[in-house]
Amino acid sequence: MTTRWTYAFVDRPVPRFAQACEFWTGATGTRLSDPRGERREFVTLVPPGGADACVKVQAVASGPGGAHLDFCVDDVRKFAKGAEALGAHVVADQGTLVVLRSPAGQLFCADPWRGQSTRPPVVRGTRLDQVCLDVPPSLHDAEVAFWAALLPDWESLSGSLPEFHVLKPPAGLPVRILLQRLDEERPVSAHLDLACADIGATRAEHERLGAEFVAEGSRWTVMRDPAGGTYCLTGRDPETGGVPSGS
After folding, report:
1. How crowded is the C-beta side of 228, counted as CA atoms within 13 Å?
2. Mean of the per-residue pLDDT values of the chain
3. What single string gives the DSSP state of each residue in 13-55?
4. Are the C-beta atoms of 165 and 158 separated by less than 8 Å?
């Protein structure tokens, strides 16, 4: 099954939805679409210059939120059935949209492809280009195998550190997947990663927009947005998504 387009979803609690929208439009250099959904719970971050959007924000009714992926495909039913055969299960079937959970419990969606093809540009030296799945050690290998089998046209690669595994999409697709093996047993979760030419400069810009510093790693900085969600600024090339040689 060929994936035609990908979306990263910023999932944030209803009371902080407006804060999330304001921050993430500023951080990505986009504008908000009109709200949609039965509870006006969805918005798209529309990029400049006629590029196709690849980030959306969803107001979630319960829990702290996080992130998830939407896969745009030619045949939603075929994609969902293939996912089920690999161990996923259906959470909701809305006809043209199917919501599923991976074997480890990560939500994702199958959605019809509507001709999206033009990736948004790098904005101020940064690009939101990755959803990181934080997977407990007992489930990590099986979860890597699930995603690699579900996305056979994606390149499955060992990451820059032993706890990382990358699923790199075909050229032109805007969002990739990083699976991170946690050092403790807890439920799977997901967060957003931004590739940054200069982490310090991006951190300063995001703090001006209301984000807070959380922690610092060897090649990444953990931040918290004004809606309470954590995300990472990573020292990757915003054009390619790769780690610069020598890093």
Report:
1. 13
2. 96
3. EGGGHHHHHHHHHHHHT-EEPPPBSTTS-EEEEEPSTTPPP-E
4. yes
Which residue shows structure tokens 């610069």? Answer: 244
Distance CA 20, CA 43 (A): 11
For the record, the structure tokens of 121 come out as 């540009």
How confident is the model over 143-173, as pLDDT tens digits?
999 999 999 999 999 888 899 999 999 999 9
pLDDT in tens, 13-66: 999 999 999 999 999 999 999 999 999 999 999 999 999 999 999 999 998 999
Rounded CA separation 179/158 (Å): 10
Location of structure tokens 């699930």: 146
Residue 209 sits at φ, ψ, to 5 deg, of -85, -5
d(CA 73, CA 55): 17
Q: pTM of this prediction? A: 0.96
* Alpha-carbon gap, residue 39 to 43, rounded angstroms: 11
Compute the average pLDDT of residues 181-195: 97
